[in-house]
Each structure stands twice: as structure tokens, then as C-alpha cells.
Amino acid sequence: MHWNIAAECISLVYLFIIWFYSRKSNLVPSLKNRLFYFCFLATFCAIGFNILSTVMLTYPNYSVNFLTWLVTTIYFIATPLMGMAYFFYTIATVFESQGNALRIMKWSSIPGVLYLFVVLINPFCKKLFLINAAGNYSQGPLIMTTYLIFYIYCLAAICVAFVRRAQVDPVIRKILTAFPVIAVLVIIVQQLYPEVILSGSAATCALLIIYLYLQNKQNSTDYLTGLPNRQEMLKMLELQTKKSRNFTIIVLSLRKFRRINDTYGQHTGDRFLREIGKFLEKTAKPRGLYRYGGDEFALIFRDASEDSIRGTVATLKKRMQESWTIDENSCLIPAVIGIVRYPESAETVEDLINGIEYAVVQAKKSKNTNVYYCGQEMLDAVRRRTEIVRILEKNLEENSFSLFYQPIISNHTGKYVAAESLLRIPDSPLGPLYPNEFIPIAEDTGNIVEMTYQVLEKACLFINRVTEKVPEFEGVHVNFSGHMFSQMDLADRVEEIIARNKTPFPKIKIEITESILAENTKIVEEFADRMQRRGVLLELDDFGTGYSNFVSVMTTPLDTVKLDKSLIWASMDNRQSAMMVKSMTGIFHEMGLQVLAEGVETEAQERFVCQCGIDLIQGFLFAKPMPEEDALAWILEG
């Protein structure tokens, strides 16, 4: 018999195309996705060995009889294995959220294992096929077993999809039913026309359907909720902006959802997210709904009226103020809402996304409302913030931040004995940037950590320059943000920078605020202990604001307490405040601590801090923050 393998060769080409694009998809290695590649491998083996076997049987003079037997046997194993692989894929898809898919597959593999046994003993019993010494092929009495196994698994896949239809998305159910039906029909055609080899083509058709409608869909669909994902939303925004259509984006952001997972477990937390997704689907119809982030959902309204948008926002607010229930678990899930409009708020997709994120952040910060609209004015602020982030990153990359120094005078000697290092950006595309604007942004983005290390490096170099001419110079005060204490290697990095620059450790004084100490008490105390052993000094900054208490001062190894300028200023007009400053100074001295007063700007304030016995003074009355060269000259003259 002469066989026609043209369809198999074409299917092999399609198979390679599917493989190429599926590998680029970077799918999550879930059981279902692993089984997809198992289906591919089974199909590839079936087609590949089918083609090879057919060629060897057609040209027996050019092949070894033993190899022809081996190749044909592998083909007979792989062909029904395709049906079993696709059945397993159906099981994994239907039962993936229930955790019992592997157990079902274990028991349902019995027919396949029995058939494998028949194939393996076929060379001895010749019941499936025979290849004689001349290389001629003939079918055995049990040849129908091969097709029967394939039919059984395809029929089982259809039955599973039908029986479990209530638990499966209707679209997925139709696909799971369609691909085995198509495969069965193709195999029936092959039985009617045995000279045309189509078994691999049947499997390739099934694989193509699975990839196009299930696997490839994972690139655009959120795995947990089944909603279109962020990438699909971005594509939609690109399309809508190109068409210049008016639309509004509403983002619902859940607040502190991690507590739900911590309280009820990850699995229950996922179920809460799915429930919220289902509610939003009903609310959003017929409008677009997307899972924008882990705990964020986005609704896109095209050409919607103001009343419609307000109505939707009201519905969302009302529902999110009510409890959600999963089994016996019931809880409130607070949320905020951010709103942007095109083209009123922004004209590009990038600006829209920035506007969304800004609106959500502002809604979370606000104490008065959980709904925030990002208009043009707000967007201008977002653009400025984005530009500042770029400036910070550029300065970080080039290590080009300017470090200013404000001299600190000793109240006992009248000499400039130290200086505080202050970060400045005097020149940028936006003009001069001041710390009260760029420091919070640096903290939000995490850039503050590397910025602080660069400041410490520059401070070490400055100290080395000063002490060459003024050995008694006490050193430089360097401010540390709370973000620094989230770094596991903080102490190592600090010690490495100081040691590398050969700067005396005691000439570095690290300033921390009381809020940092209150929020990271144990971490700060451990860091302070280690720094103290190396001689690095610690100063408590801004004492007199926020968390002010003496317990934190008593339990942390400190060298200096800096009184906030508000205390000094208030003492000029308030006798009780003045008495408190004098008392605190005495207490700190009794504890062996130095006291530094900042913000001294008038002679009256200077006289007051002198009367209180304060050790160190810092303020505009003596010197403003100045560039390195000016500060060096100032200290040398002082």
C-alpha cells in the first residue's frame, strides 16, 4: 500500500509554528500549561514517527528491519497517547482549582497503560501489526484497539466537559468539547480512506484550537479572575486614543488587601477577588472591565454621560461599604476610586496611566474622600513628579548631586566645630529643586537609599579635606531616612564607605528622626549598637515634634539630641516652653548627651540657647547652607 503523508508533513510545519509562539508566551508553569506541552510532545512524536515509519515501510531496501519495527512501535504508542494527553489537559482545565486533577488522571490512565502493554508485547504476538523480513507491513486483528483507545479518551474529554459544565466557563466548555469532536471526525475520515494518513493532523487541529482559544488567551486574560488583564487594557487605550474617542477610566483599588490574605488565607483571598470581579462585571456591562493590578480593577466608559459615571461610582462606593462573604468568612474590604478622562485629563496613554496611579494614591492619602479625580492641574503635578524622578535617577547615575554644608558652632568655644550635610539640586531642567519637594519623591521611589550612600561618600571626602587643616574638626552630620533601615546590609555598607575613604569613624554623625526610631525601634537600636562599637555617633533629630519621648532617648545609644526649631521659636514668647527647653537640656546633660539647637536666626534666640546651656547651635544667624568650597573656607576662617 502507498500512503499519502502530505497532510502529516504540513501538520508538522504547523506544529513548529505553534511551538515557536507558545514558547514566547512565557506561560505560568501550572499543571494545565505543563500538560499543554505534553500534548505538543505527544503530537510531535506521533507525527514525526508516523512520517518516518511510512518512509521506511515505503522504501524497505533503504532501512533496517529492526529499526522499522522500533519506529513503527513508537508511532503506535504515541498515536493513542495523543488522545490521553488531550484528555489530561481537559481534566487539568476543569479541575485546576479543586486540587484533585492528578488523582483523576492517575486512575484514568489505566486504559492507556493496558494499551501500552499490548504494544510492547506486539513484536512477539503480532496482534497489532506485522512487518515481515521483506519490510512489508500488515495490520493485526487488534488494530482497532489503537483507534478505540483514541476514541475512548476523546469521548471521555467530551463527557467531562459536559458533566462539569456548571463549574466551567461557557466559552471554555465549548472549546473543550469542540477539539476532541474535530479529532474524532478526522480519524473517522482516515479509517474510511486508510491510504491518507491523518492521525497527526487531527491532533494538530486540536492543539491549534487549544493554543488559539485557551493557551494564547492567557497572554491577555488574568489567570485568577478571567478578566482581560492590564496588557489588554493598554491595547484598548491605545486604540481609543488613536480614534480620538472620549472615554473615562474608573479604577477601583482595594485597600490593605494583604490583611485579607493574612487573616483568611491566600485561597480565600483569591475567592474574595473573584467575587469582587463578578460584581464589577455586572456593574460594568456593557462597558469594559479589566484587572488592572493585583488588587485593582479598571472600568472604561466610552461616550458615557456624567450621570452614568456618577451612578456607577455611587454603586461602587455603596457596595464596597458592605461586607463580602465567602463560606463562613465575612469581612469589609475598603476601597478607593481614581478617575481620569480622555482627552480632558490627558492626551496620551502614558499620561492616562500616570493620572490613574496618581488619582489612586491621592485617594488613599485623603482622609475626607475615597474618590479622587485627576484633572489637568493634577496631571501637570504628575508630569512634574515624573520629571523629578527622571532627574533624581540621572543624578544618581552620574553621582552629580550637590552637597551643601551648614556649619555648626560650639556654644562653649564659639568655633565652628561641625557641619550638617544637606542635599541640593540647584540646577535642573525644572530649575532649582528643593528638598521639601524632591526628598519625599526620592523616598516614594526608593531612590533615597542610594542617594544617602552617595551623600555619605561625599561627606567622608569633605571631612578628609577639612581635617587635613583643622584636625580638631568634629565631623559631619548625615541624615538617614527611614527607608535606610529596610536594607539588610545597611551597617556593612556604612562601614565599608567610611573605611574605604579612610575617614575616622567618630567624625561621622548619623541623624535619625523620632518617627524612624518609633517605627523601627529594634532595628535602629541594633544598628546604633554596632555603629557605636565602631565609633560612629548617632543624633536624634527634630526632638520636640511628633513622637517626642524620653524612653526612646534612654534605650538607644545616642550622642546628641537636636531640638526642633519650633521649640526654640516658641520659647521666645512662651515662658512655659522656655522652662521646658531648659529642663530638657538639663536632663539630656545628666544622661551624658550633647544638645543641639537648630533654627537659630536672631540674637534673642542665641541668647536664650546660651542661657539654657545648649552645647551646639545651628542656624541662619551664623551661616546658611553653602557649597563645599564655601563651607570649607568658612570653617577654616571660624
TrEMBL record:
Keywords: Membrane, Transmembrane, Transmembrane helix. This is EAL domain-containing protein. It comes from Anaerovorax odorimutans. CDD domains: EAL, GGDEF. The keyword Transmembrane helix applies. The keyword Lipid metabolism does not apply. Pfam families: EAL, GGDEF. Gene3D superfamilies: 3.30.70.270, EAL domain (3.20.20.450). Residues 245-377 form the GGDEF domain. The chain crosses the membrane at residues 5-23, 35-60, 66-92, 104-122, 142-163, 175-190, 196-214. Residues 385-638 form the EAL domain.
